Amino acid sequence: xxxxxxxxxxxxxxxxxxxxSHAFAIQEIPFSRQGSWFNISSVTAQHARxxxxxxxxxxxxxxxVLRFVPLHPSSGSRAETVWRATPxxxxxxxxxxxxxxxxxxxxTVRLRGERLDLAITPADQELTSFTGTYLYRDPVDGSYQxxxxxxxRRYRVTLLDGTIATAVGLEGLAGADRxxxxxxxxxxxxxxxxIDSARQPYAPRGDFDAAALSHAEAFRDFAGAVxxxxxxxxxxxxxxxxxxxxxxxxxxxxxxxPAVLMSKHWMDKVWSWDHCFNALALAQGLPxxxxxxxxxxxxxxxxxxxxxxxxxxxxxLFNFVKPPIHGWxxxxxxxxxxRQPESDELRETYRRLGRWTDFWLRARxxxxxxxxxxxxxxxxxxxxxxxxxGRRVLITADLAAFLVLQLAELAELAKDLGDAGAxxxxxxxADAVQQALLEELWxxxxxxxxxxxxxxxxxxxxxxxxxxxxxxxxxxxxVADRLAERIAEHLTRHGLATEHTDxxxxxxxxxxxxxxxxxxxxxxxxxxxxAGHTGxxxxxxxxxxxxxxxxxxxxxxxxxxxxxxxxxxxxWTASSYLxxxxxxxxxxxxxxxxxxxxxxxxxxxxxx
Length: 608
Description:
6hp_glycosidase-like_sf, alpha,alpha-trehalase activity, 13 helices, 608 residues, single chain, elongated, glycosidase
């Protein structure tokens, strides 16, 4: 990757849970708020970090739009500042000056400066006929507007107090220097709005402090709903809640519902299994938002019943799919919701889940075979796992196990809807798939994979081959016990390595070839617990929770060192932490001094 001169490769600090429990490293977690399609961050592209903070939009993809450079008022030179981010305010600090930013609403931030000026420039000064950012002054209200080709939006800067000390490059083209400098001997204040095409001139809704208070209250309500956990048991719960809150966007583009993106870094999509973990974490405190998360991929189900690989603002991808964990997720979601969905919603969900199941039974099961197949490792969600080293098109045990659970959940839904005949049919199919799984793929104390073309067998040392533990109580005891033994062999001091650490294919930063991942942890922990291996399940939960409290909410983690890897603000990791912490608290809630886990429930309202 070619990096711009002002960018460098990310080297993240390790500690995320800071001594000030409300502060976080903005190099790891972007500053944003629920509903917003933009954030403030130094991470401007995949694995790239700029010297300055930028306004980053996620409409039409991830795009750095505006660059913020603090300046000394006397000389106009760059001021070296320290960034301080909390869930409710971002500041640039340099003795004796300060610039503060808060969100007034999902599309509006307010800025206030004292003894520091601020230059606002396009992230990329080059302007062509199809790329870049154009700057002009609006003759209607006197505001300054940056219009971005990449996002298709405008960024309106309105001065509320102070002066525009510099405004250069207005209506300039090509590589003209474009910049605004906000200044004022008694301080200055301005507002930046992300707008579509036009909007009434900005009218303040209150002062800066009122905006800060409103921002703080919005986050406090969200955190109180999704993370009402004792701080001594879950010290990273508030930060996990912030990761979820700040990555949530309002409906726009292809996303028809409020959506929790996987991140407001470069992983700014909803993938069709990631969303399940976010739904589970939100279920008890914000049931409507949780239900929306579960349904998002189903809004785009194709004619065969397949779910898209991913959905984002302006793109839906169908070239791959994701594993059918949705029956497992729906069972757990219904257990966690404070109230069950209305019958019409349940019936529609039953129809959608049935079509998704039929896709695997028909479009992905070869004639004469009893088990479905993946077409690539990407379909499994474990993209480059060593399970797929020999063959990409493969019948695997995890897929069959997930399908059994999905059929079992369809049976439960059919019962709830009063269709006993359909329930029996679903259970019959589930039993047939499970029998084929055990007869065809279980041999010599392990599950193997096979080619649907040749029938040739393959084995690996990937944790993926042990995922049938998700069947829990449905497994024969000897199978569950052997799986538990082998899962324990993958357990490092920090959690479950996705490739055995003694394997010649193990890689510390090998994506699914070694690092610890949140979804595998949650699925295996649940399966072990239902299979009766509660001690091992407790140990896995404890190690993963401690890992997040030490290394944050990274996309994945080095299995031997615990270092957070890749995207450092990943929502399914935060959700998995909250889910495991909540369940641990419920199991131990009789300890003296702990308030009940439901103490702050209900702020999100009843399920619709």
